[in-house]
Amino acid sequence: MKKILCLMLALMMVMSFSAFAEDGTFTGVGEGGKAGNVSVEVTVEGGAIKDINILENEETEGLGDVAMEDLKQQMLTGNTVDVEAVTGATLSSTAFIAAVKDALSQAGIDPESLVATGETAEAAELEDAYDCDVLVIGAGGAGMAAAIKAKEAGANVILIEKMNNIGGNTLLSGGEIAAPGNWLQQEGVDSVEQMEADLAKAGGNPELDHVLASNALNAAEWLRDDVNVEFEDYMLFFGGHSVERSLVPKGATAVELVNKLWAKVQDLGVTVFTNTRATELMVEDGKVVGAKAENNGKTVEFRAKNVVLTTGGFGSNVEMRKANDPAMDEKILSTNTVGSTGDGITMATAIGADTVDMQYIQTYPTCDAETGALLYVADVRLDSYGVLVNKEGKRFVEELEARNVISKAVTEQTGACSYLFWDEDAMQKSGVAETHKAEYEDLLARGQLVKADTLEACCEHFGVDAENLKQTVADWNQYCADGEDKEFNKRGDLIPIAEEGPYYMLVSKPAIHHTMGGIVIDTDAHVLDTDGNVIPGLYAAGEVTGGIHGNNRLGSCAIADIIVFGRIAGENAAK
Ligand code: ADP
Q1: CB within 6 Å of ligand 1 — which residues?
Q2: How does pLDDT run across 364-392, given as a tens digit for each residue?
Q3: Which among 460, 508, 214 has a CA at the least distance from the CA of 335?
């Protein structure tokens, strides 16, 4: 009897809400996405959600949009907005949920009153075990390169990824790749030896660096010709390189790179399981024979002839960071995805793998002072424009120095932040406001970037000493006229700052970006144990490995690394 009463009550509630709710399609807006507002159209029928259409938005391709699609399916299946934000895409998720709620309220529906179906849009349950030739763990750039090469070599490949989206830290990068002797460089200005010499300054393993430098161009050509990655027709001059040699994928973010690698992975028919986190390597008679993983709470065994670890670094694992460098504590923001927790290092060391350079954790010098995100608008610096000053309005480091040097110098300044100052000509020629429009507008809206007619107005916004900055700019322009930066000997082109505005000023801070240390590999990407012996059946590539970048990774050498060693690992694992 009680049950019948409850049912009647529920029915009456639905009927009463349906009575107030309007059928139709309603637009809703959610604020605070990664790149501003998120808009949706929600179709409502009889008080229930019938369809959700995600309108144009600037959320990170491959990350925010994947999360929103996932939430949309959950909402439609469950007729509910009571869904959890997707890990790693919290801002996009929260804005999306708010947008749907907003649309529902336009329809006269209180989101709390939606009658949930109780159904969930969960993926089909995995089998208890799978067999393959090559298991690749981690679907960032290195993992996808390895999976492609292994599959092309005829292996049966499974690629597992713990997040609900592929791409890892690779997706959050600019995607630039250092390639000596590339198609945009003039003949003879660069060489493999010159790149090796640049890499050697950080004290990495010379044999691995030789493999990296001598295969980097080939890796870039492979991306262009085999993976169909489109590149811009200009290069960037990353700090610490002796020449401009970094190729830029279309759109100047890694979205192009990751999308094309992903398309190739799919075209080749690699079996991919997302939301599947490897937890331990399986070893039999001293050989790695697969890995155990978790998917939706279920333990699954992936048995393989060879395993490739491509799980990325540990920039988001505060405990691991602190254990290796106590200065890298929770107070320091990070550019990394939440997936970069050093799982591969933990799993490999548990079976005897050696690690190297774990104490070298790189901060990127010009990140969002509020969130730690990489700032692409700040790439105007890498085009040789602008001056980097402190609160006192003075330059304090060479603008194109290596990342560790600039980051260290910034942390020693007032407020531990820096201010990049440039003019309208630089803005137009670099094109960063157009290429990274959403970020540009978001920075302006949050007051992290200011555009003003005068130098004084820029300084006033941030409390930077204007008199000193005027002198700094005058000195800088004199150095440009003389053809020599007498203070910091800036490399590359010396470009003066205009006498007239508008000007731009951007505040930024260093944030954790790359962990140089990791598992020890040899030049064939075999993982080595603490006695220097190969661990049979185990390969590794990318940020999970150590020794290649020494104490400081040069910009655009990570993409070269993941593609060069990802391909080697995949090819060898398939043999
Ligand atoms: P790389 O630049 O070396 O390719 P990325 O950070 O781009 O590194 O990619 C590493 C990928 O590995 C990320 O997508 C991350 O979520 C994934 N990953 C990390 N740990 C695990 C794990 N235990 N199981 C499956 N995937 C993992």
Answers
A1: 137-143, 160-163, 168-170, 277-278, 310-312, 339-340, 343, 542-544, 562
A2: 999 999 988 889 999 999 999 999 999 99
A3: 508
